[in-house]
Amino acid sequence: MNSGVSSVPTLITKESSFRPSQNSQPTESDLEEEEEVEEEDSVRSDYYLTAKSKLELLFRRCQDCGALIDPISLEWTQVASALSVTYQCTGCKHLFRWDTQSKKGRGKSQVFDLNQSFPVAAFCTGTPIPRLVDLCDVLSIAIPRERSMRETIRFYGCPAIDRVYGRWEKEARQLSKDTAPEEGIIVALDGQYDSPGYCASNCKVTVFDSSLGLILVAVSLSVKDPEMGT
C-alpha cells in the first residue's frame, strides 16, 4: 500500500475548525483510474434516446437533392414523446416531413408508437405514473401527459390485457380438461383481500387446477357489487 495516500481523511485543527489534509485529496492519477468507460454493445433495442441537437445535424442538407437547408426553415413539432420536422427545400422545391417514430392504428386514430407503449409498459410493470413523470422531467425526456397516459391505459391497455388473459384462461381450462383423470379435476381456491379482517372492500378469487398448477379463472369482487349483498 502506498503510504503517501490515506484511505481515511485526516483532520487538521486550525482555529477551532476542521479541514481535510492535502494528502487525502484525490490525485490526478486517481481520477484517471476512476473514470468510467462506457461499454459498447451490439444494437439490440428498437428505441434509443437522442438529443435534439444531434437530430438537427441530420438536416443540414436535403435528403433528396443534397442542397443546403436553411436552419430557419426547419419546423420542429413535438407530439408527446415523438418529434417531427418539416422543411421545404429551396433546391428541389419539395416539402419533406420526417418523424422520430412510426405510427400505429388506422385513419385518424393513428398514434405514435411510444405514446401508447409508455403508459401500457408502466401499467404492466407496476410503475406509478407520477414516478414515471418525475423521472422523465428530471432527465428532460418527452413523454405523454399524465392524463393522456391514464386514458391510454383505460381505453387501450386494459382491454388488450383482458383479451390476452382471457385467451390464456381458455387455453388453461382446455388443457386441464384434456389431462383430467376419470374422477375429475381437483380444484383449489385462493382469495386475496385489499385489507385484513372485516375492513376489506375488494377481493380477488382465483380457481386453479391443483394437479397442473394452472389458473382456470380469476374473478375480482367488490362489496359494492349488487350480488354481494345477497
Describe the structure.
The protein is of the alpha+beta class and 230 residues long. The protein has 3 domains: 49-100, no CATH class; 102-178, no CATH class; 182-225. Helix content is 30%, strand content 23%. It is built from 5 helices and 10 strands; from the N terminus they run E-E-H-H-E-E-E-E-E-H-H-H-E-E-E. The strands form 4 sheets. It has a 3-stranded antiparallel β-sheet, with no helix packed on it. A 3-stranded antiparallel β-sheet has the order 8-9-10. Helix 3 packs across helix 5 (146-178). The longest helix has 33 residues, at 146-178. 7% of the residues are buried. The model is unreliable at 1-14 (pLDDT under 50).
Low-confidence stretches: 1-14
- Class from secondary-structure proportions: alpha+beta
Strand content: 15-25%
Radius of gyration: 30 Å
Number of strands: 10
Q: What count of domains describes the coordinates?
A: 3
pLDDT average, as an integer?
A: 84
Please tell me what the overall shape is: elongated
How is the biggest beta sheet arranged?
3 strands, antiparallel
Give the fraction of residues assigned to helices. 25-40%
| Order of strands across the main sheet | 3-4-5
| Topology order in helix (H) and strand (E) letters | EEHHEEEEEHHHEEE
- Number of helices in the DSSP assignment: 5
Organism: Pristionchus entomophagus
Biased composition (Acidic residues): 29-41
Region (Disordered): 1-42
InterPro entries: Mutator_transp_dom (IPR049012)
